[in-house]
Amino acid sequence: MRIRQCCEIALAFAALAFSAEQVWDRAPASWTKAEAQSILDNSPWSQSINAAIIPVQSEEARRAGGVMGQEHGLGYDLQSSKSAGLLGSWRSSPQLQTVPLLIRWESALPVRVAELRSGQTGVPLDAFDGCILAIYRIPGTYFGDPGKWSKQLVSSASLESGGHPLTRPEQATVYQMSDGVAAVYYFPSTAVEDAKASIYFQARIGRLQISKAFLPEKMRFQGALALATSSK
């Protein structure tokens, strides 16, 4: 419940921040490189988030659960971050730490146009009919088979919007980027079809707990809701 309340507060601030005329309200041909980059960094489709770092279990607790040793890999081998951000307003323990990440709707048309205009390369976009969300700047270096992480990422992520049941991604993968690892989730477009109420995204990557709410009413581009892509 606290996570949902925290998301609602963030939505209120986002609604105010994006109330005036914005770059994406204009024709893409008029966007400068810097303006296109601003869409990729801070817009209704691309926002910074503070992911909570779940504390490491004690060896005693893990042994009691039938597990020996600590887990390693994507989202597990983390250095403590002193950034608190929004999570600091409701955290129940002074030891709770967060790490700054960036979440972006890669399937949204304004994002794809902005990447072309800015010259920035995001994660590869495979032919997929639906919503593609990417989480950037996950600390560490990725190594190994991307398929190893797919099942874990799929089972611990979801999209939820008013009038639609909680939806799991159809697939997920990871990419090594210049500023960390990117986790990419592929959801069916039906998860947000005709979405009018807030859209909630949640995911867990190792010890990182990620929660973010989005405002569909602010995610319109050229008169239409811009969330999903189509390969047709």
What would you say this structure looks like, in words?
The chain is α+β, with helices and mostly antiparallel strands and 232 residues long. It has one domain (2-225). Helices cover 22% and strands 27% of the residues. The chain contains five helices and ten strands; from the N terminus they run H-H-E-H-E-H-E-H-E-E-E-E-E-E-E. The protein has helices at residues 2-17, 33-41, 59-64, 109-118, 146-155, and strands at 46-53, 97-105, 131-138, 157-161, 171-177, 180-187, 199-205, 208-214, 220-221, 224-225. An eight-stranded antiparallel sheet has the order 4-7-8-1-2-3-6-5, with helices on both faces. A two-stranded antiparallel sheet has the order 9-10. Strand 5 (171-177) and strand 6 form a beta hairpin. Helix 2 packs across helix 4. The model is unreliable at 8-19 and 80-93 (pLDDT under 50).
Summarize the structure.
The protein is of the alpha+beta class and 232 residues long. Helix content is 22%, strand content 27%.
Which short descriptors sum up this protein?
two-stranded antiparallel sheet, 10 strands, 232 residues, 22% helix, eight-stranded antiparallel sheet, alpha+beta
